[in-house]
Amino acid sequence: MIVNFSFVLLLFISVFVSSANAKATISISIRALNRSGDSVVIQWSGVDSPSNLDWLGLYSPPESPNDHFIGYKFLNESSTWKSGFGSISLPLTNLRSNYTFRIFRWSESEIDMKHQDHDQNPLPGTKHLLAESEQLSFGSGGVGMPEQIHLSFTDKVNTMRVMFVAGDGEERFVRYGEEKDLLGNSAAARGMRYEREHMCDSPANSTVGWRDPGWIYDTVMKNLNNGVRYYYQVGSESKGWSEIRSFIARDLYSEETVAFMFGDMGCATPYTTFIRTQDESIATVKWILRDIEALGDKPAFISHIGDISYARGYSWVWDEFFAQIEPIASKVAYHVCIGNHEYDFPAQPWKPDWAATTYGTDGGGECGVPYSLKFNMPGNSSEPTGTKAPPTRNLYYSYDMGSVHFLYISTETNFVKGGSQYEFIKRDLETVNREKTPFVVVQGHRPMYTTSNEVRDTMIRQKMVEHLEPLFVDNNVTLALWGHVHRYERFCPISNNTCGKQWPGSPVHLVIGMAGQDWQPIWQPRPNHPDVPIFPQPEQSMYRTGEFGYTRLVANKEKLTVSFVGNHDGEVHDTVEMLASGEVISGSKESTKVPNLKAVSASATLMRKSESNTLWYVKGAGLMVAGVVLGFIIGFFTRGKKSSSGNRWIPVKNEET
Questions:
Q1: Dihedrals φ, ψ of 420, to 5°?
Q2: In the chain, what is the straight-line distance between the N-terminal and C-terminal CA atoms, in Å?
Q3: How many Å separate Cα 594 from the centre of its chain?
Q4: Rounded mean pLDDT of the chain?
Q5: Under a CB-based contact definition with an 8 Å cutoff, are residues 448 and 484 in contact?
Q6: How far is CA 602 from the centre of its chain?
Q7: Pairwise CA distance, residues 319 & 167, whole Å
Q8: Calpha distance 475→471 (Å, rounded)
Q9: From the record, what ranges are coiled-coil (predicted)?
Q10: Rounded to 10 degrees, what is the CA torsion of 92, 95, 101, 102?
């Protein structure tokens, strides 16, 4: 047999060239998802000479420029990426516009250390687009179905507010009733929205950060019976209804109070984006959901005291946040107060000389607008922004729940003597009915007391002690809760930085900003050795830790108990009890079991339920940029889950090293 060598060689060259020039392709497993949280599998093939820097970008709306991605994933997260093909599964949030997915080639020589994200990591390059997928939608274009459902109290005990988001401004309703199969009551919802021109700075008003926020709907369920479970759903006949949810109405005659309280939670995303997101927030939501389900038919609420979503001007992060909290916020009232990452902007109207370096750009140009419209708290507090933006709302307000009076304040707007907020706080505290609510809890974002090394806020703390602490002391505030510092710390009953023996005249202060954000300051070093990493625990600080978690408040007319629950195991690791007599009982047993919440009484808290849920994705710890390209690449692609093993609690009066 005679073989034509020239023909074989030509065929080999032809196959080789065809393979070398094969065009990469990308496809998706489904063209439409039903609701937020549903997953799509993105598959690719034909990626020639794959490298660690090849990446997948998420885009919404589909016409977004290449550098205006929602987020990204590296192709090397697929086990087969080295062969030029692979797949990644992603749960997605409905942004009310379609998605597309694009894959890019990015080389080491193109790494631009001047083009960075919030954590100073280089953003991926978009010069070499390899392939783009078809569009992915949510239902009927993602427009009609209501999502991001959350509840809150109003000024009337026999009501409950419900808010949600949809993609258009057509009429929508809530229908509700005491029987799941008979939602006989209804109320029309008011739709509203904000625009890009309302944002006051970048990135919120830039083409990178802005996305259409949809329509925000707000309505109130009225004439509710005390302590009764109500079923409800939101939407319309023409656009579709949500799933039926339920909540327990407030009970005007109950003396029992249950609340879950924390600050600085943020949210997690299944992709990397321009800003840091908060993996630990998933565990916080998981354990609180366990606790709510353990309550049975007891009313409760959630209190999130500032630094809510950490969107910082990237509007889709607000969507991710509300999708994450919906399982708990649609069951119990979700209350908030404003933090620096919702509000602070260079031109904010109240910026005294002593706070000029404190109030900066932390709000990412949002100037409080998404916060003000996406929530609607009791009362009518507001302050003008001094820009095109609508007034900032939800600044200070109060309500009663069982045996406790709760007061929320703003540390980002004027709180000093002579201002409208100061007068509200003074009047509110002076008129509390202590026969009905013997305990008073004040909440705000920046702490009045902390032993963290937060030197930037020193003047604010001094002004809070000067102007607000006398009101707390004179009116016998029981407990003050603060966020901002991403740690848990409990102080003695304290006034003028001096421990007292009882809470009347010396409120107990807790810092509870440990719900998600993972940047943590050091504790204050020793004054005479500031460069030595030993941080003595002052006598005023009874317990402090770097563990993530949340607090649980349970009260009746005889006792108010606050417990710190750690995220790594869902168990109680610190407890303080405040008796109506004024006595404060401090305890911090390392392995306190979660008590039974269904039997809320003088001694009740929560029963731990078995829970097998795990994080739905593992996101790497932050990148530390190396001095050489090789070190950088190794660090970038070997990010692992932050370790939660080991005991990180600090015993009372011990030194942390």
A1: -65, -35
A2: 82
A3: 24
A4: 86
A5: no
A6: 32
A7: 12
A8: 6
A9: none
A10: -130
CA 626-638-549 angle, 5° bins: 100
Give pLDDT tens digits for 516-536: 998 876 777 767 666 665 677
- Tell the burial category of 638 from Cβ atoms under 10 Å away from its Cβ (0-12, 13-18, 19+): exposed
How crowded is the C-beta side of 456, counted as CA atoms within 13 Å?
Answer: 10
Which residue, 447, 439, 430, is CA-closest to 257? 439
Position 460 confidence tier, pLDDT thresholds 50, 70, 90: very high
532 CB neighbour count, 10 Å cutoff:
10
Bridge partners of residue 443, in order along the sequence? 408, 481
Is the four-CA dihedral 352, 355, 361, 365 of positive or negative sign?
A: negative
Question: Burial level of 335, CB count in 10 A (0-12/13-18/19+)?
Answer: buried
Q: Which of 310, 311, 292 is nearest to 301 (CA)?
A: 292
| Three-class DSSP labels, 83-104 | HCCEEEEEECCCCCCCEEEEEE
More confident residue, 173 or 453: 173
SS3 6: helix
pTM strictly above 0.85:
yes
Exposed (0-12), middle (13-18) or buried (19+): which is 46, by Cβ within 10 Å?
A: middle
DSSP 534-556: -B---TTEEEEE---EEEEEEE-
Contact 472, 506 (CB under 8 A): no
Beta bridge partners of 220: 161
* Host H or E run for residue 508: strand 508-512
